[in-house]
């Protein structure tokens, strides 16, 4: 990949939004982002979109399904968790995941921010985040599905691409 940059570290892209979904496939874009931004002053945002926690149908509106926990004696018990508590727990887990993926970028001296969004529609959330963050480029992995497989399983990358909000670099991992 040829990177377009001027002497002095000015990059073709000021802000790059990288979407990760928790899979090795999505994480395979990280080396491409390093190659694209190395030696520049490009700001990178790693974004993870998570589904909103589901509420327990028989519970109060603010309570979601029981969460298994161990009491002091090591016996299993069920505790109820509010939607806010579940979202905070998930947010912390996902922020930790993003921070791990930010390490190779930061090792290259790149500026990295980690963001977690909650939404039912990942493509919509990615599109909105790219617009609000003024990203110049989005980088996403693609499974490379075509035909019936794409129709059956859908494609977040394809739906983001159809929106056409920002330029997108789709990375298809080798062998996919």
Briefly summarize what is shown:
By secondary structure, the chain is an alpha/beta fold. It has helices spanning 24-27, 30-37, 83-107, 122-133, 147-153, 156-163, and strands spanning 15-20, 43-50, 63-70, 76-82, 111-118, 137-141, 168-171.
Your description of this structure?
The protein is an alpha/beta fold and 176 residues long. The protein has a single domain, classed as Rossmann fold. It has helices at 24-27, 30-37, 83-107, 122-133, 147-153, 156-163; strands at 15-20, 43-50, 63-70, 76-82, 111-118, 137-141, 168-171. The strands form 2 sheets. The protein has a 5-stranded parallel sheet, sandwiched between helices. The chain has a two-stranded antiparallel ribbon with strand order 3-4. Helix 4 (122-133) crosses helix 6. The radius of gyration is 19 Å and the shape is globular. 27% of the residues are buried. The model is unreliable at 1-8 and 148-153 (pLDDT under 50).
The level of helicity is 25-40%
Counting DSSP E segments of at least 2 residues, the number of strands comes to: 7
Structural class by SSE content: alpha/beta
Largest sheet: 5 strands, parallel
Proportion of residues in extended strands: 25-35%
CATH architecture level-2 label:
3-Layer(aba) Sandwich
- What is the CATH superfamily? HUPs
Average pLDDT across residues?
79
Query: How many individual domains?
Result: 1
List the total number of helices: 6
- Provide the gyration radius in Å: 19 Å
